[in-house]
Amino acid sequence: MSDNNMQRLHTNDLELGATEAIQKHYERHVVSTKPVSQRKLDFERARPRWLREMVAEATGVFFYVYPGIAATAGFMLNKQDAAFGSLFQIGFAFAFGIAFAIITCASTSGGHFNPAMTICFATWQGFPWKKVPYYIFAQIFGSFMAGLLVYGQYHEQIAAFAAATKAAGEGTVFNGGPASIFCSFPGPTQTNLGYLFFIEFFVDSYIGFVLWACLDPANPFIAPAAAPWAIGLVYALMVWGFADITISTNLARDLGTRIVAAIFFGGEAFSYHNYSWIAILVNVPATLFATAYYELLVRDSLQKIGKGAAFHEDGEEGLNLHLVKSNISRQSPMSPNMQKVFSLGSNGSTLNSGPKMETGFSLAAETNSN
């Protein structure tokens, strides 16, 4: 070991890189990062915010869909070899993909990654409706690119699989066929669309409710660091429970990859058993139902104000009036959150200060971390 390295060991410094992320957990010095140039700041300032948000949403959906359908491809193309995967592996691939999508991209766009969630944020949380169309376009585009890349990477194996299914007289578009690597199709005996609608609606409602609870800043049982994994896990649970019946769970995830399936396997990807509208559209009303259930029957907005995630529409006077009408006073036994609410109502709120964060996962994580 050189003298320079020995000298560095005695300084207790950490090298720049992954170790920088853990500096707050250890009392050590970190090597200074390269200074930010004015040129870089000018470039980032000139970069449109809408472009950053679209790129983040597209990238996040890509990170979610890409490992999921890649695991599906590995499993379906090697059914005779258990070493290449199972439904259990596919569920985890989607779960980890969702977690990594949130970790990498949510701080920029809010981390919607699902058109239904974007619509719910606009409905319940004040997300600008003017942003909804380009968020949804970016999400579908990210899914499309994931499907396109997986097809390119598995092209030889998929082509051989398609040739085999055609030779067997099965075609390419059916549950378990080449096209089902990319999007969902019902089984040959699953012709009851009402039944398939019910399955999809309940599965998506379950996911939407758990996701909305994870993003509730007043929820004391979910920490920001755990939320991505909890959200990913609920998707995996539904894959494990209902994939054999056929589920989609996400408009963007299904539509983007279904377009890829239609490009390479024909328009039957949309017309097969008249099912595609269920996979594409049911996710939206189901998630709206789940979030409405949470907002109308479960949400505690006063606790949300206490966490600093919201403010009264009439400001300090409105909050004070509500506290008086609710018989909340300094003498009343209060939880720490309620004490914070009383303090905000009495001394003035600063909830609307600080840098703006987009409605979504990042805002909830920021609030929960305070």
TrEMBL record:
Superkingdom of origin organism: Eukaryota
Location of the region described as Disordered in the Swiss-Prot/TrEMBL record: 349-370
Pfam families, A to Z: MIP (PF00230)
Keyword Transmembrane helix listed: yes
Ranges annotated as spanning the membrane: 61-78, 90-112, 132-151, 193-215, 221-243, 278-297
Protein keywords: Membrane, Transmembrane, Transmembrane helix, Transport
InterPro entries listed in its UniProt record: Aquaporin-like, MIP, MIP/Aquaporin
Location(s), subcellular: Membrane
Entry keyword annotation includes Protein biosynthesis: no
Membrane-topology annotation of the record: Multi-pass membrane protein
Family that this chain belongs to: Belongs to the MIP/aquaporin (TC 1.A.8) family.
Descriptive protein name: Aquaporin-like protein
Species assigned in the record: Aureobasidium pullulans
Organismal lineage: Eukaryota, Fungi, Dikarya, Ascomycota, Pezizomycotina
